[in-house]
């Protein structure tokens, strides 16, 4: 799509702001200790799991569209055909009520999916989740063998993740993908990871990189140099240029200039607060869970109506003019980038943490 046409599309999407994905940070407990964790999760969290009934009460504030009256008020804003509730954490599979969660969401007419490290994902767990109506699943694989185990902090993590991927990839009724955090240790393994996933029957491999937030601040091996970023872009471009049964794509981290539409199916667009919202562990309402919750939270389900917050707030996401500062202030690519992904703005927000346009060799 031509840049000016895409900008028109983005403006329309922002104006309509139909809610397509609602993330629920249902637990901050985790059975691993990952070096790149933005939520700083541990096996024992100071934050208790949010009770299911509390989340459902918030979910029930979303109006159901009247399919017999497509022009009815709210019909554009929330659509049970397109809204997916995404369970995230922490590790969602640590919740003993995971089956009930899925069933209750499905009973309300919404699709639901999950992001998991795969450690507890067995054949039995797979059957339970599918029986509860799970429609999509993402499992993380961050390298081959020791490089994955180093990232995840557990010597059995790679074996467990590979087993989970093998199970999920065989399921015909599941929208499944694998996500990988590419860093200095696993960058040389790109081809091996690709071949491994291809042989397991994976149809989509989604790649992202790390910005210095959470635990990643103290982990220099997680951060690619500019030259390594270019190498990663060239790898993805090469895979996408060939006919392959597995689609390789780069995440929606930031604007990539000359690599746009070469490493992902559509041009860069941060959907946070435009099509994506989240309910965090303490009830705060935000966009993607990795966004600075202390800066960008829009309300709390324990005192606010989730739907009213979605409709009437989130302006900091829908009008990005505030981000035109620092290196973004005089950038000629501003209208295409709008300051990059919202997760790139943390703390005092005086400067974007990472400029993907510059890092990928654009001039």
H/E topology pattern: HEHEHEHEHHEHEHEEEHEHHHH
Q: What percent strand?
A: 5-15%
Number of strands: 10
Mean pLDDT: 92
The global form is globular
Task: Explain the overall architecture.
- The protein is of the alpha/beta class and 363 residues long.
- It has 13 helices and ten strands.
- Strand 2, helix 3 and strand 3 form a beta-alpha-beta unit.
- The longest helix has 15 residues.
- About 2% of the residues have low confidence.
Top keywords for this entry?
single chain; 363 residues; alpha/beta; ten-stranded mixed β-sheet; 30% helix; globular
Topology:
Elements: H1 3-16, E1 21-25, H2 52-59, E2 84-88, H3 98-107, E3 111-116, H4 123-131, E4 134-140, H5 146-152, H6 157-169, E5 175-181, H7 190-199, E6 204-208, H8 226-240, E7 247-250, E8 276-279, E9 284-286, H9 293-296, E10 299-300, H10 306-312, H11 315-318, H12 334-337, H13 356-359
Brief account:
This protein has 363 residues and is of the alpha/beta class.
